[in-house]
């Protein structure tokens, strides 16, 4: 059973999550603020952390940055009521493997947790849209062509995700295997996390994040 | 001799001179024909002598008045000269009242006048008609400086100064009394300093004079720099208020984010009725827009597409996900795309029975693309009911008018996708 740690300062939401996920996953711990979350995650070493972006004591990014220094196997799925660009891109750049909004259905959330645990990335349509936006435009100032631009295939996959298709539907429509679609999305995630593309930097700073 | 207080008195009398001059130079005037000095009626402070002289000589009366004032301080000869000039001048008849235009003194004229005054002053100093170096020189310098400031600052100069924010010079000249303030202030500073230096090292009574000097200096400085200082202070206070406001707003946003947005998200996850879920969704959208987004720019494609969601959700209680990549001006082609997308979304919400409608718009260098899809019951495009065909035709009509293409993909049980492609206008 996949071991899940919940980080959220909203108690109603936390108890709702616990009830929804409890049958399918092993909930190994919960925390409502940054320090408690870091301690709890280091102690219980879960497979997946469901991480609220807005947390007292530094936000989800502070948890991500602290854990990344000690436990790199722990995977994070960011969860937030906000789908503002700065929140989404901020936690992804800090190392989260996916981002979903809190209005996600329990079924989709469970699927997303499994996907993240399996090492894949979870892109909501909106996140896919943000990435396309961020990697938009010409290539002047590109430092690393491999990291700083999307391939035509990756772009096509993201476009379909942005249009609301599931990975399976994307695979069928583009005549690919689901595994290939997942590979493309993971590759985009890596670029998003590591790219120094100036467009991305400018795009992000326009939206008040570094 | 009249002493320091006399100088002070004279300094204080200067202001009307400056103001009158300001207005007088703006009055259109006719040239005078007589050779005699005609006292000015329109350009008059005391008896119109300086005004008349100025008009006669084509010199700014201000300089004449400064000269009279300085000479009056320097032993009182200015007063004598003024009365003499009054005696030889004539009162204007009504026709001549609006005399010739007063020209601004050219630099050479001003220089010459200055030399004349200086020479007269030195002469007076030699013959002993003199209040003392410590008083006269500073006042004369202040008066000359003021005259230069006035003469140099034509309207264009002042307009340029006024554009420099937070500039003390700008503040000095602001308002109708700006120049008066400078002159009075300058004279007060000068006489105050003169008073202070003149009496250093003297007896106890002189200490009072020195204090008076300091006080006069301070008053003068505050007259000159007062407006600038108060404006600076009020600007700082305004900035501080703004900061407090934005902090309060951020705090409230954080609170609303934590409580209200979460509650709205919870309602959407709960098994509430579709109406309640949609209400929560709509209010979340509105609250979020208010909390985080900068005011939407008018005439852009992105906000127009995002509005589709609100309209469709309001009418049909079906949630709409909107993703927009890139942005473009909302020209005619873009407007057509937005309208077509909205029609397709409304259609999907009305007929498909799907729990969600997705709208995706992307701005590419040479075309705009739009996709509207649902996972509803779908239909066989060959056997479309006439009412739905009508809508499909109207979407096609809009897009084709702008040289675009429409593809509708659907089959029973598979949902529907409307794909729109539109070339971008060359001039957008």
Question: What attributes does this structure have?
Answer:
heterodimer, A: 210 residues, alpha/beta, Rossmann fold, Arc Repressor Mutant, subunit A, six-stranded parallel sheet, 13% strand, B: 428 residues, alpha+beta, Heat Shock Protein 90, 2 domains, five-stranded mixed sheet, 15 helices, 5 strands, elongated, disordered N terminus
Write the layout of secondary structure elements.
The complex is a heterodimer of chains A (210) and B (428).
Chain A (H helix, E strand, L loop, with lengths): L2 E5 L3 H11 L4 E6 L2 H11 L3 E5 L6 H12 L4 E6 L4 H10 L3 E4 L4 H12 L4 E2 L1 H10 L10 H4 L3 H11 L4 H8 L3 H17 L3 H9 L4
Parallel strand pairs in A: 1-2, 1-3, 3-4, 4-5, 5-6
Helix pairs in contact in A: 2-3, 4-10, 6-8, 8-10, 9-10
Chain B lengths: L2 H22 L24 H9 L3 H13 L3 H12 L5 H4 L9 H21 L5 H20 L2 H9 L4 H6 L4 H21 L5 H66 L4 H19 L8 H16 L3 E6 L6 H20 L5 E7 L3 E8 L11 H16 L3 E6 L5 E8 L5
Parallel strand pairs in B: 1-2
Antiparallel strand pairs in B: 2-3, 3-5, 4-5
Helix pairs in contact in B: 1-3, 1-10, 2-3, 3-4, 3-6, 3-7, 7-10, 10-11, 11-12, 13-14, 14-15
Description:
The complex is a heterodimer of chains A (210) and B (428). Chain A is an alpha/beta fold and 210 residues long. Chain A contains 11 helices and 6 strands. Chain A has 2 domains: 1-119, Rossmann fold (3-Layer(aba) Sandwich); 121-210, Arc Repressor Mutant, subunit A. Chain A has helices spanning 11-21, 34-44, 59-70, 85-94, 106-117, 125-134, 145-148, 152-162, 167-174, 178-194, 198-206; strands at residues 3-7, 26-31, 48-52, 75-80, 98-101, 122-123. Chain A has a 6-stranded parallel β-sheet with strand order 2-1-3-4-5-6, sandwiched between helices. In chain A, helix 4 links the parallel strand 4 and strand 5 (98-101). The longest helix of chain A has 17 residues, at 178-194. Chain B has 428 residues and is α+β, with helices and mostly antiparallel strands. Chain B contains 15 helices and 5 strands. A 5-stranded mixed β-sheet of chain B has the order 1-2-3-5-4, with helices on one face. The model of chain B is unreliable at 1-34, 95-103 and 151-166 (pLDDT under 50). The chains are: A alpha/beta (210), B alpha+beta (428). The interface between A and B is medium-sized, with 25 and 26 residues.
């Amino acid at each position: 059973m996949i071991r899940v740690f919940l980080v959220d300062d909203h108690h109603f939401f936390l108890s709702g999550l616990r009830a929804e996920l409890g049958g399918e996953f092993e909930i190994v711990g919960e925390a409502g603020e940054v320090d408690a979350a870091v301690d709890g995650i280091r102690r219980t070493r879960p497979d997946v952390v469901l991480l609220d972006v807005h947390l007292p004591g530094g936000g989800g990014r502070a948890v991500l940055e602290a854990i990344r220094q000690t436990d790199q196997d722990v995977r994070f799925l960011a969860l937030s009521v906000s789908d503002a660009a700065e929140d989404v891109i901020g936690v992804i750049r800090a190392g989260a493997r996916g981002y979903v909004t809190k209005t996600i259905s329990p079924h989709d959330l469970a699927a997303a947790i499994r996907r993240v645990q399996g090492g894949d990335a979870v892109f909501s349509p909106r996140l896919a849209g943000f990435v396309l936006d961020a990697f938009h435009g010409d290539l002047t100032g590109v430092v690393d062509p491999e990291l700083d631009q999307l391939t035509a295939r990756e772009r096509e996959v993201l476009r379909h995700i942005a249009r609301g298709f599931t990975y399976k539907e994307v695979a069928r429509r583009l005549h690919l295997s689901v595994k290939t679609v997942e590979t493309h999305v993971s590759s985009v995630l890596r670029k998003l996390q590591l790219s120094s593309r100036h467009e991305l930097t400018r795009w992000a700073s326009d939206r008040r994040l570094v | 001799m009249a002493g320091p207080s006399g100088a002070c008195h004279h300094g204080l009398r200067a202001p009307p001179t400056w103001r009158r001059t300001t207005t007088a130079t703006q009055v259109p005037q006719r040239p005078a024909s007589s050779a005699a000095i005609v006292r000015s009626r329109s350009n008059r402070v005391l008896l119109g002598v300086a005004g008349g002289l100025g008009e006669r000589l084509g010199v700014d009366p201000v300089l004449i008045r400064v000269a009279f004032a300085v000479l009056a301080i320097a032993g009182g000869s200015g007063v004598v000269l003024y009365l003499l000039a009054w005696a030889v001048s004539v009162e204007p008849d009504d026709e001549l009242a609006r005399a010739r235009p007063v020209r601004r003194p050219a630099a050479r004229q001003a220089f010459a006048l200055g030399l004349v005054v200086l020479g007269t002053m030195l002469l007076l100093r030699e013959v002993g008609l003199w209040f003392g170096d410590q008083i006269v020189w500073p006042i004369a310098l202040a008066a000359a400086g003021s005259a230069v400031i006035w003469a140099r600052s034509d309207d264009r100069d002042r307009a340029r100064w006024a554009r420099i924010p937070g500039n003390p010079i700008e503040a000095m000249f602001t308002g109708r009394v700006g120049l008066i303030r400078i002159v009075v202030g300058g004279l007060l500073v000068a006489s105050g300093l003169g008073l202070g230096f003149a009496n250093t090292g003297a007896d106890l009574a002189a200490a009072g004079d020195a204090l008076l000097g300091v006080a006069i200096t301070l008053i003068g400085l505050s007259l000159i720099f007062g407006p600038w200082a108060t404006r600076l202070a009020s600007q700082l206070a305004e900035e501080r208020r703004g900061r407090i406001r934005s902090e309060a707003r951020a705090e409230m946003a954080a609170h609303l984010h934590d409580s209200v947005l979460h509650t709205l998200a919870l309602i959407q996850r709960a098994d509430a009725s579709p109406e309640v879920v949609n209400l929560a969704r709509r209010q979340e959208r509105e609250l979020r827009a208010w909390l985080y987004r900068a005011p939407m720019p008018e005439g852009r494609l992105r906000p127009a597409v995002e509005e589709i969601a609100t309209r469709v959700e309001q009418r049909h209680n079906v949630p709409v996900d909107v993703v927009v990549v890139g942005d473009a001006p909302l020209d005619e082609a873009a407007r057509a795309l937005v309208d077509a997308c909205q029609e397709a979304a409304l259609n999907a919400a009305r007929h498909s029975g799907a729990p969600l409608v997705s709208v995706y718009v992307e701005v590419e260098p040479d075309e705009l693309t739009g996709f509207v899809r649902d996972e509803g019951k779908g239909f066989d495009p060959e056997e479309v009911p006439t009412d739905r065909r009508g809508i499909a035709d109207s979407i096609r009509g809009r897009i084709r008018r702008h040289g675009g293409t429409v593809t509708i993909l659907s089959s029973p049980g598979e949902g529907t996708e409307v794909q729109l492609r539109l070339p971008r206008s060359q001039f957008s």
